[in-house]
Amino acid sequence: MILYLHGFLSSGNSFKGQWMKAEFAALGIDVLTPTYPISDPEQTAAAIDAEIHAAGLAKKKAAPWCIMGSSMGGFWGHYFAQKYRVPLVMINPVLNPTDTLSPYLGTHANPATAEVFQLTHAYLKSLKQFACQPDESLKTLVLLDEGDEVIPYQSAKLAFEKIATVKVFKGGDHAFQHLEDAWVEVESFVRKAGITE
């Protein structure tokens, strides 16, 4: 199974999540795309953890699984992949949410879920407890668009290029426009991780 974590102001019905679900369904591999609250980091973490347990992925004898995450989903994926020691795919990930989200302090409404919340300094401080350093013992694939207008792609490239597989695509944007181009790499990564259902 694959757990796909959506980005900030998004949901489990995001284009990338549903695209991954459809592509892997054709291979007989399930992709779980939960929608979770984003108004409070601790609630976000608890909700994702609950999804992992509900799917039986936290069991010691669980079948091989991995995590994929885009943007803030990459941030959360990084945390949970390290917690559960599973392979990780990150797409244009947020590595330092304080830097990435600070310009957006204020009231937000998630257009995908209608959830309204305040992005505050306390929110950013709370996120820090979930920040992780890159772990070379964790199998990781990082997909980046050079044209990402939200997060300079160089930050993730420099952080992971010596310890993970990093693929950088010319152009594109933060939404990541190279899913089809990256598919061979993603499928190969999942297969090598031993995920078959």
Secondary structure category: alpha/beta
* Biggest sheet descriptor: 6 strands, parallel
What is the helix tally?
Answer: 7
What is the helix fraction of residues, given as a range? 25-40%
**What is the CATH topology classification name?**
Rossmann fold
Terminal-residue CA separation: 6 Å
CATH superfamily: Alpha/Beta hydrolase fold, catalytic domain
Mind telling me the C-alpha Rg?
A: 16 Å
Query: What best-fitting shape do the alpha-carbon axes yield?
Result: globular
Strand residues, percent: 15-25%
Count of distinct strands: 8
Order of helices and strands: EHEHEHEHEEHEHEH
Number of domains: 1
Give the low-confidence spans. none
Oligomer: single chain
**Which second-level CATH architecture applies?**
3-Layer(aba) Sandwich
The CATH C-level name is: Alpha Beta
Describe the strand arrangement of the main beta sheet, using strand numbers.
2-1-3-4-7-8
Could you tell me the mean pLDDT? Answer: 95
Verbal overview:
The chain is α/β, with parallel strands linked by helices and 197 residues long. The chain has one domain (2-192): Alpha/Beta hydrolase fold, catalytic domain (Rossmann fold). The chain contains seven helices and eight strands, in the order βαβαβαβαββαβαβα. The protein has helices at residues 15-25, 41-54, 72-84, 97-101, 121-127, 153-160, 179-192; strands at 2-5, 31-32, 66-70, 88-91, 106-109, 116-119, 140-145, 165-169. α3 links the parallel β3 and β4. The termini are close together.
